[in-house]
Structure formats: C-alpha cells, structure tokens
Write a structure and sequence with these properties.
This protein has 7 helices and 11 strands. The chain has 242 residues and is α/β, with parallel strands linked by helices. The strands form 3 sheets. It has a 7-stranded mixed β-sheet with strand order 7-4-3-2-1-10-11, sandwiched between helices. A two-stranded antiparallel ribbon has the order 5-6. It has a two-stranded parallel sheet with strand order 8-9.
Length: 242
C-alpha cells in the first residue's frame, strides 16, 4: 500500500461560477504544486472539460478522475465520479436532458468555457448549468451507479446547497455510502444519530485557483489507478482509508 494525497471536488471554467483562470492545464498545474496526486474535476452539471483536465493532469503525473457536481431537484449538490470518460459523458448526457430548457446568462452567471488540455478555447456552452436538474436526490446514487460511477452528497456541513441544509437529515434510502464535508466542518457533526458510521472526507470545492487546498488527506491504495481509487471509494477491503 502507498498513500496518495487527494482532492475530489474541483471546478473549471466550464462552471459558470468558476474563475476563467481555472483552465484544465492551470488546474492540473496548481494541483501538482499543492502536492495532490489524485484529483477529480466536478463542474456544475457538466463534464465537457473532464477529458482535457484528465489529460493535463496526466502530463503532471497526477491521476485525474472525470466527474460532475450534480444539482438535484431539491437544490442539493451531489458529487458524481466515474472510472472513465465515456461513463462520465453518458451520465452528462442524461443530466443535460434533465436541465431546465433555458440559456445561460453569461452577464449574470459568467461564461461556460470549453477547452482542450493545452487551454485552447473550443467554444462555450449556452445551456443553464447553474440551475437545478429534475433529478431527485433519492435517484442520484443509483443513476450514477447505472453509468458505472459513484455519487455522494457534497459539503453536507454547509448552510446552502447541501443535503442537511435542504432536507435536514441523512436518509439511508438515498443509497449514499459516504459523504463530503468542507475542511472547516464542525468536529461533532458525525456524532448526530443519522450520521454515525458514515465514511467522509473533505474537499476544496475550488472555484478559483487559490482555493485549491494543500495535500492533507490521503487514500491508501495498492497502486495509483482509477480502479484502485474506486475500490477505495466503494469501501472494498483491498483499499484502505488513510
């Protein structure tokens, strides 16, 4: 086993609220400077920059994971991660169909920029990625799993766009097997009866380059591969939590 520093919640310039400097190559470079070794791109309701980011991460010797931060119909954020780009794109097509049929207001929410791994602009998305989808939080985990991925609620300790803030409780019927918190999460949060025993870790949820956190948490893996990362995420016995 070896220990690998990770951050599984980052945004690129495809997220309307993300900084335009959060290009795939810039993100990968800053992750390398931060000492991160396993990272995931999770733009709001979109996967269009995942391929570019994963290729840019590979150039820095980092394992990139394609993903998304889904906004459910309850306006709760859910991190969805996938073992390969094709699975993420399949999920992305489903989510795009579940978005409201309105256009992004770049003057209000900012542009949604598509790039390649060398930060060449490929275009802009005009659908409203900042909005809530019609997908229920009760369906998110199963839907991600049907595409070969895993989903878990994001930053559950925050007062907005979180499972606890919007629904008030953790329900096993949602089929989530772990949770994400912010680094400033209260130490006693998981003493709540409904959260006891729930595996969790934190993430930067970086929308700007200076929000990327330094290496401070680790996953113990037999090898640094996507397969090993997903065994760890699913709590399989051959990959231990660090």
């Amino acid at each position: 086993m070896a220990r690998y520093a990770f951050d599984l919640h980052l945004h690129s310039c495809l997220s309307p609220c993300g900084g335009e400097e959060n290009t795939p190559a810039n993100l990968a470079g800053m992750c390398a400077l931060a000492g991160l070794e396993v990272v995931a791109l999770t733009d709001h309701n979109a996967v269009g920059n995942c391929g570019a980011f994963c290729r840019a991460a590979e150039a820095y010797g980092i394992l990139g994971i394609p993903g998304m931060e889904l906004t459910t119909v309850e306006e709760a954020h859910v991190v969805c991660l996938f073992p390969e780009l094709a699975a993420a794109e399949k999920f992305g097509a489903i989510v795009k169909e579940a978005l409201p049929p309105i256009k992004n207001r770049r003057d209000i929410y900012g542009p949604q920029i598509l790039m390649d791994e060398e930060d060449n602009v490929l275009g802009e998305e005009d659908c409203f990625y900042a909005g809530a989808t019609s997908i229920s939080i009760y369906d998110a985990a199963d839907l991600a799993l049907s595409c070969g991925g895993i989903a878990y609620p994001a930053h559950i300790d925050r007062p907005s766009f979180s499972l606890l803030a919007n629904l008030g409780f953790w329900d096993p019927a949602m089929h989530f097997i772990r949770a994400e918190v912010s680094r400033s999460c209260p130490a006693d949060l998981f003493q709540r009866e409904d959260l006891q025993g729930i595996p969790h870790f934190d993430a930067s949820d970086a929308h700007y380059l200076d929000q990327i956190q330094d290496a401070h948490q680790y996953m113990d893996l037999p090898e640094r591969t996507t397969e090993a990362v997903f065994r760890w995420l699913f709590g399989r016995n051959d990959a231990k939590s660090g």
